[in-house]
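Action item from last week, closing it out:
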Amino acid sequence: MDEATVKLLCPECGKNWQTPINDLPSSHENFHCPNCHATRRLAEFMHTDRDLETLKQFE
């Protein structure tokens, strides 16, 4: 079975990447961009609403 992933997009620097859901905190916790180190709620890094819905299914 494939591991579920979501696409992330930093709202500050524009870095775009994909990561496994198991490597992420819950959507309301703080998350840090690995590129520019911006800190925001993880939900704000979701590339699309679909990615956010997918993340919330695994919380």
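Closing note: The chain has a mean pLDDT of 94.
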